[in-house]
Amino acid sequence: MKILKLLILLGVTIAYSASILTTPIHANGPTANDLVAAVNAYRAANGYYTMNSHTLVFQAAQTHAEWIVETGQGGHIGAGGSDETVRVSWTGYGNGAQIQCDENWASGRTIDDALYSAWSDWTHQEVMLNQWGNLYTDIGGGVAEWGDGSYVFILNVCKVIGQEASGDVPNTNNESPAIAIPPTPDYSNYIFSVVKATPQYDETVTHVVQYGQSLLSIADAYGITVEELRTLNEFAPDFTSIWPDDVLIIKVGTGKTAPIETTTAEIPPKTATPTATATMQAPTTAQPTATVITETKANNKQPSLTAELLLVIFAGLGLVIMIVVSTIKDQ
User: Does 3.40.33.10 match the CATH number of domain 27-187?
Assistant: First the structure.
Protein backbone atom coordinates (compact mmCIF):
# COMPACT_ATOMS: atom_id res chain seq x y z
CA MET A 1 0.00 0.00 0.00
CA LYS A 2 2.86 2.34 0.85
CA ILE A 3 4.51 1.53 -2.45
CA LEU A 4 1.29 2.44 -4.33
CA LYS A 5 1.08 5.78 -2.52
CA LEU A 6 4.68 6.51 -3.31
CA LEU A 7 4.11 5.73 -6.97
CA ILE A 8 1.07 8.04 -7.09
CA LEU A 9 3.00 10.84 -5.35
CA LEU A 10 5.90 10.35 -7.76
CA GLY A 11 3.55 10.58 -10.78
CA VAL A 12 1.94 13.76 -9.48
CA THR A 13 5.35 15.29 -8.88
CA ILE A 14 6.54 14.43 -12.39
CA ALA A 15 3.36 15.83 -13.96
CA TYR A 16 3.61 19.06 -11.98
CA SER A 17 7.27 19.45 -12.92
CA ALA A 18 6.48 18.87 -16.60
CA SER A 19 3.76 21.50 -16.52
CA ILE A 20 6.18 24.02 -15.06
CA LEU A 21 8.80 23.26 -17.71
CA THR A 22 6.34 23.54 -20.58
CA THR A 23 4.67 26.75 -19.36
CA PRO A 24 6.22 29.79 -21.10
CA ILE A 25 7.80 32.27 -18.75
CA HIS A 26 6.79 35.84 -19.60
CA ALA A 27 8.98 38.70 -18.55
CA ASN A 28 7.17 41.61 -17.06
CA GLY A 29 5.71 43.52 -19.99
CA PRO A 30 5.09 47.26 -20.29
CA THR A 31 2.21 48.70 -18.33
CA ALA A 32 -0.10 51.66 -18.81
CA ASN A 33 1.65 53.45 -15.93
CA ASP A 34 4.99 52.91 -17.66
CA LEU A 35 3.58 54.43 -20.85
CA VAL A 36 2.25 57.54 -19.11
CA ALA A 37 5.48 57.98 -17.15
CA ALA A 38 7.48 57.78 -20.37
CA VAL A 39 5.27 60.37 -22.11
CA ASN A 40 5.47 62.79 -19.17
CA ALA A 41 9.24 62.36 -19.10
CA TYR A 42 9.36 63.06 -22.84
CA ARG A 43 7.26 66.19 -22.31
CA ALA A 44 9.56 67.38 -19.53
CA ALA A 45 12.61 66.82 -21.73
CA ASN A 46 11.02 69.08 -24.33
CA GLY A 47 10.08 71.83 -21.86
CA TYR A 48 6.45 70.93 -21.20
CA TYR A 49 4.54 70.60 -17.95
CA THR A 50 3.60 67.24 -16.46
CA MET A 51 -0.02 66.20 -16.96
CA ASN A 52 -2.03 64.59 -14.18
CA SER A 53 -2.66 60.85 -14.28
CA HIS A 54 -6.44 60.42 -14.20
CA THR A 55 -8.10 57.11 -13.33
CA LEU A 56 -11.04 57.56 -15.72
CA VAL A 57 -8.79 58.51 -18.61
CA PHE A 58 -6.72 55.38 -17.88
CA GLN A 59 -9.93 53.33 -17.88
CA ALA A 60 -11.00 54.58 -21.31
CA ALA A 61 -7.55 54.00 -22.80
CA GLN A 62 -7.29 50.47 -21.39
CA THR A 63 -10.77 49.54 -22.63
CA HIS A 64 -9.90 50.68 -26.13
CA ALA A 65 -6.57 48.81 -26.14
CA GLU A 66 -8.33 45.56 -25.18
CA TRP A 67 -11.05 46.20 -27.79
CA ILE A 68 -8.39 46.51 -30.51
CA VAL A 69 -6.78 43.21 -29.50
CA GLU A 70 -10.18 41.51 -29.36
CA THR A 71 -11.42 42.79 -32.73
CA GLY A 72 -8.16 43.35 -34.59
CA GLN A 73 -9.46 46.76 -35.66
CA GLY A 74 -6.69 49.20 -34.92
CA GLY A 75 -7.44 52.90 -35.03
CA HIS A 76 -9.13 55.72 -33.20
CA ILE A 77 -12.68 54.61 -34.00
CA GLY A 78 -13.72 52.10 -31.35
CA ALA A 79 -16.73 50.30 -29.98
CA GLY A 80 -20.00 51.62 -31.34
CA GLY A 81 -18.21 53.98 -33.71
CA SER A 82 -16.91 56.05 -30.80
CA ASP A 83 -13.95 58.40 -30.85
CA GLU A 84 -11.58 59.08 -27.96
CA THR A 85 -13.60 61.97 -26.51
CA VAL A 86 -16.81 59.90 -26.50
CA ARG A 87 -15.09 56.89 -24.94
CA VAL A 88 -13.62 58.99 -22.14
CA SER A 89 -17.00 60.64 -21.53
CA TRP A 90 -18.55 57.19 -21.05
CA THR A 91 -16.40 56.75 -17.94
CA GLY A 92 -17.96 59.81 -16.30
CA TYR A 93 -14.91 61.98 -16.76
CA GLY A 94 -15.90 65.66 -16.51
CA ASN A 95 -19.05 64.94 -14.49
CA GLY A 96 -21.25 65.86 -17.43
CA ALA A 97 -19.30 68.96 -18.45
CA GLN A 98 -18.01 69.34 -22.01
CA ILE A 99 -14.66 67.64 -22.47
CA GLN A 100 -12.04 67.36 -25.19
CA CYS A 101 -9.50 64.59 -25.73
CA ASP A 102 -6.82 63.49 -28.17
CA GLU A 103 -5.39 60.03 -28.68
CA ASN A 104 -2.36 58.17 -29.96
CA TRP A 105 -2.33 54.45 -30.63
CA ALA A 106 0.40 52.10 -31.83
CA SER A 107 1.43 48.49 -32.01
CA GLY A 108 4.95 47.48 -30.99
CA ARG A 109 7.09 45.44 -28.64
CA THR A 110 8.24 48.24 -26.38
CA ILE A 111 7.11 51.68 -25.27
CA ASP A 112 10.07 53.13 -27.16
CA ASP A 113 8.64 51.59 -30.36
CA ALA A 114 5.53 53.68 -29.83
CA LEU A 115 7.15 56.82 -28.43
CA TYR A 116 10.11 57.18 -30.79
CA SER A 117 8.98 55.35 -33.92
CA ALA A 118 5.23 54.93 -34.37
CA TRP A 119 4.56 58.38 -32.90
CA SER A 120 7.48 60.17 -34.51
CA ASP A 121 5.34 61.98 -37.11
CA TRP A 122 4.16 65.49 -36.41
CA THR A 123 0.51 64.71 -35.64
CA HIS A 124 1.34 62.22 -32.90
CA GLN A 125 4.08 64.48 -31.60
CA GLU A 126 1.53 67.26 -31.20
CA VAL A 127 -0.77 65.00 -29.20
CA MET A 128 2.06 64.14 -26.80
CA LEU A 129 3.65 67.58 -26.61
CA ASN A 130 0.51 69.70 -26.84
CA GLN A 131 1.78 71.68 -29.82
CA TRP A 132 -1.80 72.56 -30.79
CA GLY A 133 -1.99 74.72 -27.69
CA ASN A 134 -4.91 72.81 -26.23
CA LEU A 135 -3.32 72.82 -22.74
CA TYR A 136 -4.63 69.39 -21.71
CA THR A 137 -4.54 68.65 -17.99
CA ASP A 138 -5.08 64.88 -17.65
CA ILE A 139 -3.45 61.82 -19.13
CA GLY A 140 -4.10 58.09 -19.15
CA GLY A 141 -2.78 55.03 -20.94
CA GLY A 142 -3.74 51.52 -21.89
CA VAL A 143 -1.64 48.47 -22.80
CA ALA A 144 -2.94 45.14 -24.11
CA GLU A 145 -0.89 42.17 -25.35
CA TRP A 146 -1.44 40.80 -28.84
CA GLY A 147 -0.10 37.39 -27.86
CA ASP A 148 2.90 37.39 -30.20
CA GLY A 149 5.20 39.43 -27.98
CA SER A 150 3.83 42.76 -29.21
CA TYR A 151 1.43 45.14 -27.53
CA VAL A 152 -1.21 47.72 -28.31
CA PHE A 153 -0.43 51.08 -26.75
CA ILE A 154 -3.13 53.73 -26.20
CA LEU A 155 -2.44 57.25 -24.96
CA ASN A 156 -5.29 59.63 -24.10
CA VAL A 157 -4.85 63.27 -23.10
CA CYS A 158 -7.90 65.22 -21.97
CA LYS A 159 -9.30 68.36 -20.40
CA VAL A 160 -12.63 69.69 -19.21
CA ILE A 161 -13.51 72.69 -21.37
CA GLY A 162 -12.89 75.82 -19.34
CA GLN A 163 -10.45 74.04 -17.02
CA GLU A 164 -7.36 74.14 -19.18
CA ALA A 165 -3.93 74.16 -17.59
CA SER A 166 -3.08 77.59 -16.25
CA GLY A 167 -0.28 79.36 -14.49
CA ASP A 168 3.32 79.11 -15.61
CA VAL A 169 2.67 76.57 -18.35
CA PRO A 170 5.06 76.60 -21.34
CA ASN A 171 3.79 75.98 -24.82
CA THR A 172 5.35 75.72 -28.24
CA ASN A 173 3.91 78.96 -29.52
CA ASN A 174 5.96 80.91 -26.95
CA GLU A 175 2.84 82.84 -25.98
CA SER A 176 1.91 83.86 -22.49
CA PRO A 177 -0.06 81.01 -20.84
CA ALA A 178 -2.67 83.56 -19.79
CA ILE A 179 -3.52 84.13 -23.44
CA ALA A 180 -6.00 81.55 -24.66
CA ILE A 181 -4.81 79.73 -27.76
CA PRO A 182 -7.70 78.55 -29.96
CA PRO A 183 -7.55 74.77 -30.43
CA THR A 184 -6.63 73.71 -33.91
CA PRO A 185 -8.43 70.86 -35.73
CA ASP A 186 -7.55 67.34 -34.66
CA TYR A 187 -5.72 65.68 -37.53
CA SER A 188 -4.68 62.59 -35.57
CA ASN A 189 -7.40 60.45 -37.20
CA TYR A 190 -6.13 61.15 -40.71
CA ILE A 191 -3.68 58.34 -41.27
CA PHE A 192 -2.23 57.37 -44.65
CA SER A 193 -0.92 53.84 -45.13
CA VAL A 194 2.57 53.49 -46.55
CA VAL A 195 2.62 52.84 -50.29
CA LYS A 196 6.04 51.67 -51.43
CA ALA A 197 7.75 53.89 -53.97
CA THR A 198 8.92 52.57 -57.33
CA PRO A 199 12.74 52.21 -57.55
CA GLN A 200 14.51 54.61 -59.87
CA TYR A 201 16.71 53.50 -62.80
CA ASP A 202 19.77 53.00 -60.59
CA GLU A 203 17.63 51.21 -57.93
CA THR A 204 17.52 54.27 -55.65
CA VAL A 205 14.35 54.29 -53.53
CA THR A 206 12.98 57.40 -51.81
CA HIS A 207 9.76 57.85 -49.89
CA VAL A 208 7.63 60.98 -49.49
CA VAL A 209 6.16 61.13 -45.98
CA GLN A 210 2.37 61.38 -45.72
CA TYR A 211 0.14 62.35 -42.78
CA GLY A 212 0.27 59.93 -39.87
CA GLN A 213 3.25 57.95 -41.15
CA SER A 214 6.09 57.24 -38.76
CA LEU A 215 9.64 55.97 -38.97
CA LEU A 216 8.40 52.59 -37.77
CA SER A 217 5.54 52.24 -40.25
CA ILE A 218 7.76 53.36 -43.14
CA ALA A 219 10.60 51.04 -42.14
CA ASP A 220 8.21 48.09 -41.77
CA ALA A 221 6.69 48.73 -45.20
CA TYR A 222 10.10 48.62 -46.89
CA GLY A 223 11.41 45.70 -44.84
CA ILE A 224 14.18 47.58 -43.03
CA THR A 225 14.72 48.59 -39.41
CA VAL A 226 14.18 52.04 -37.95
CA GLU A 227 17.90 52.16 -37.16
CA GLU A 228 18.75 51.49 -40.81
CA LEU A 229 16.31 54.20 -41.88
CA ARG A 230 17.92 56.70 -39.52
CA THR A 231 21.41 55.77 -40.76
CA LEU A 232 20.44 56.11 -44.42
CA ASN A 233 19.10 59.60 -43.77
CA GLU A 234 21.91 60.61 -41.37
CA PHE A 235 19.49 61.06 -38.48
CA ALA A 236 20.55 61.00 -34.85
CA PRO A 237 19.94 57.68 -33.00
CA ASP A 238 17.01 59.22 -31.12
CA PHE A 239 15.58 61.22 -34.04
CA THR A 240 11.78 60.96 -34.33
CA SER A 241 10.31 64.08 -35.92
CA ILE A 242 9.37 63.56 -39.54
CA TRP A 243 6.85 65.73 -41.34
CA PRO A 244 4.52 65.39 -44.32
CA ASP A 245 6.34 65.87 -47.65
CA ASP A 246 9.72 65.01 -46.13
CA VAL A 247 11.69 62.81 -48.55
CA LEU A 248 13.40 59.84 -46.92
CA ILE A 249 16.12 57.70 -48.48
CA ILE A 250 15.10 54.06 -48.34
CA LYS A 251 17.83 52.58 -50.52
CA VAL A 252 20.97 54.06 -52.03
CA GLY A 253 21.29 53.23 -55.72
CA THR A 254 24.28 52.37 -57.85
CA GLY A 255 24.55 55.81 -59.40
CA LYS A 256 24.11 54.40 -62.86
CA THR A 257 22.48 56.92 -65.12
CA ALA A 258 19.80 56.06 -67.57
CA PRO A 259 20.89 56.07 -71.21
CA ILE A 260 19.96 59.13 -73.17
CA GLU A 261 17.34 58.25 -75.65
CA THR A 262 18.04 59.62 -79.11
CA THR A 263 15.35 59.96 -81.64
CA THR A 264 16.33 58.97 -85.18
CA ALA A 265 14.20 60.43 -87.89
CA GLU A 266 13.01 57.67 -90.14
CA ILE A 267 13.48 58.35 -93.84
CA PRO A 268 10.37 57.26 -95.66
CA PRO A 269 10.97 54.89 -98.60
CA LYS A 270 11.56 56.69 -101.86
CA THR A 271 8.63 56.48 -104.17
CA ALA A 272 8.82 56.86 -107.95
CA THR A 273 7.97 60.31 -109.08
CA PRO A 274 4.91 60.08 -111.26
CA THR A 275 5.59 60.99 -114.90
CA ALA A 276 3.29 62.82 -117.18
CA THR A 277 0.92 60.41 -118.82
CA ALA A 278 -0.37 61.18 -122.26
CA THR A 279 -4.07 61.57 -122.09
CA MET A 280 -6.01 60.32 -125.07
CA GLN A 281 -8.45 62.94 -126.12
CA ALA A 282 -11.37 62.37 -128.35
CA PRO A 283 -10.80 63.79 -131.83
CA THR A 284 -12.44 67.06 -132.34
CA THR A 285 -14.62 67.62 -135.38
CA ALA A 286 -14.05 70.83 -137.15
CA GLN A 287 -17.15 72.90 -137.19
CA PRO A 288 -18.12 74.19 -140.67
CA THR A 289 -17.54 77.83 -141.27
CA ALA A 290 -18.81 80.21 -143.88
CA THR A 291 -15.43 80.23 -145.54
CA VAL A 292 -14.85 77.61 -148.26
CA ILE A 293 -11.41 76.06 -148.08
CA THR A 294 -10.05 75.40 -151.60
CA GLU A 295 -7.46 72.67 -151.88
CA THR A 296 -4.81 72.76 -154.62
CA LYS A 297 -4.72 70.03 -157.27
CA ALA A 298 -1.30 68.89 -156.19
CA ASN A 299 -2.65 68.03 -152.78
CA ASN A 300 -5.90 66.48 -153.99
CA LYS A 301 -6.07 63.23 -156.00
CA GLN A 302 -9.73 63.72 -157.02
CA PRO A 303 -10.56 65.57 -160.32
CA SER A 304 -11.49 69.16 -159.89
CA LEU A 305 -14.99 70.46 -160.49
CA THR A 306 -14.02 72.01 -163.92
CA ALA A 307 -12.70 68.71 -165.36
CA GLU A 308 -15.82 66.87 -164.37
CA LEU A 309 -17.98 69.47 -166.10
CA LEU A 310 -16.01 69.14 -169.34
CA LEU A 311 -16.37 65.36 -169.32
CA VAL A 312 -20.10 65.65 -168.88
CA ILE A 313 -20.33 68.12 -171.75
CA PHE A 314 -18.25 65.91 -174.07
CA ALA A 315 -20.28 62.87 -173.14
CA GLY A 316 -23.47 64.73 -173.83
CA LEU A 317 -22.23 65.92 -177.25
CA GLY A 318 -21.18 62.43 -178.15
CA LEU A 319 -24.57 61.12 -177.27
CA VAL A 320 -26.27 63.77 -179.36
CA ILE A 321 -24.05 62.95 -182.35
CA MET A 322 -24.84 59.25 -182.03
CA ILE A 323 -28.53 59.95 -181.93
CA VAL A 324 -28.32 62.21 -185.02
CA VAL A 325 -26.30 59.68 -187.00
CA SER A 326 -28.68 56.86 -186.11
CA THR A 327 -31.65 58.93 -187.26
CA ILE A 328 -30.08 59.70 -190.64
CA LYS A 329 -29.39 56.00 -191.32
CA ASP A 330 -32.95 55.03 -190.56
CA GLN A 331 -34.28 57.40 -193.21
Answer: yes
Q: Domain ranges in the chain?
A: 27-187, 192-256
Listed residue (161, 157, 159, 179) closest to 169, CA to CA: 179
| Residues 37-54: tens digit of each pLDDT | 999 999 999 888 999 999
Q: Model's pTM, two decimal places?
A: 0.51
Q: How far apart, in Å, are the Cα atoms of 168 and each of 47, 129, 135, 175, 307?
A: 12, 16, 12, 11, 151
Report the distance separating Cα 242 and Cα 209, nearest Å: 8
pLDDT in tens, 295-325: 333 333 444 445 666 676 777 777 767 776 6
Residue type, 245: D
In the 8-state DSSP scheme, what is residue 168?
A: S
Alpha-carbon gap, residue 67 to 260, rounded angstroms: 56
Per CATH, the number for 192-256 is 3.10.350.10
* Three-state secondary structure call for residue 103: strand
Q: Give the span between the Cα atoms of 241 and 15, in whole angstroms.
A: 53
Count Cβ atoms below 10 Å from residue 110 Cβ, excluding itself.
16
Q: Confirm if 111 and 34 have CB atoms less than 8 A apart.
A: yes
**d(Cα 236, Cα 230) in Å, to the nearest integer?**
7
The residue ranges of DSSP E strands in the chain, in sequence order, are: 52-53, 99-108, 138-145, 151-160, 205-208, 247-251
3-state DSSP assignment of residue 117: helix
